[in-house]
Write a structure and sequence with these properties.
Elements lengths: L23 H29 L21 E5 L7 H17 L10 H5 L3 H11 L12 H20 L10 H5 L3 H14 L11 E9 L5 E9 L15 H8 L1 H19 L17 H11 L15 H17 L9 H5 L3 H15 L4
Antiparallel strand pairs: 1-2, 2-3
Helix pairs in contact: 4-5, 8-9, 9-13, 10-11
Amino acid sequence: MSSPRPKSPRTPVLPKKEDKEESFWDKIGTIGRKKRIKEVQEVQAEGKLAIDSPGSPTAPEIPPEEYSLHDNEERAIIEPRCLEDPRVKELIQVLIDWINDELAAQRIIVKDISEDLYDGQVLQKLLEKLTETKLDVLEVTQSEEGQRQKLTVVLRAVNRVLYGTSKPVQKWSVDSVHSKNVVSILHLLVALARHFRAPIRLPENVTVNVVVVKKDGSNQLSHRTYIEDITTTYDDLGMKCERDAFDALFDHAPDKLQVVKKSLITFVNKHLSKVNLEVMDLDTQFHDGVYLCLLMGLLEGFFVPLYDFHLTPQDFDQKVHNVSFAFELMQDVGLAKPKARPEDIVNLDLKSTLRVLYNLFTKYKNMA
């Protein structure tokens, strides 16, 4: 993992006391010189742009270090401006938070997905945590060769877990990850999060612009740009479990799904109306756990102490606490353990929410 570079000490530049005060005409001359210098710099910048991207007035923004290519070498990089896209930034932050949560016990903190993951160390620890296995690799490798060897072992293990084979895949490779290719690292992390049903909600339909730069035999650079899909639309955010009626409803009978939702809304409102509460939207109104806690008290006829849950939760952790507490109440009264994680409910996974509510419906549907 990267550590911030120490800043070199700088000696402050103090004004010379013996400098005489500039006259009015001196200042006029200085302004003229500065203007001419600025004009020269602008012309030089335009000339460099024309040389670097001949015939292309809308060339993509490419960092200078990416120009270092061998003849006929091709390299794909993300357009730097895409990293400022709010949805891309959200996706990166969600993935970083997930990694840090998974590795918190090992006191590993990721701040930058490219700088902290390129050498394979964090990826090794993450895969070991997710699979509950141990990889046969050196713990610490400082040399580039050692890092590449570790990445080879780690990525082969990742591919076996995801695809059942250790063969290379198109979306990531040892070269792309070690060269800190953000697109490859994002693809890798999203695939892991999806496979292990991470308790997170990934921003959907996130795309980035990828620039493929190629250097030909005459030392000229050419480029092409295409749009890469990083995430898509998901309807299976919850934890993995055996297929049930809700999977069939989502896959094959969306019309019947609406009937089920309407029945559940009628059921919960029948009881929540006793405390002047009403549910209009199952998709969103149970995600903070408040209605679940109150509903359990109403169904079982006991008062739920307000100090046991957050009546107005302010953040993700407080919402997870509420849902976890509601799950505990359900099991305390003899209900089966919910086929969902608290995080799934908080992350607005509709299928998980419906499973929990239907579990209540089957037990209390005949209750007055």
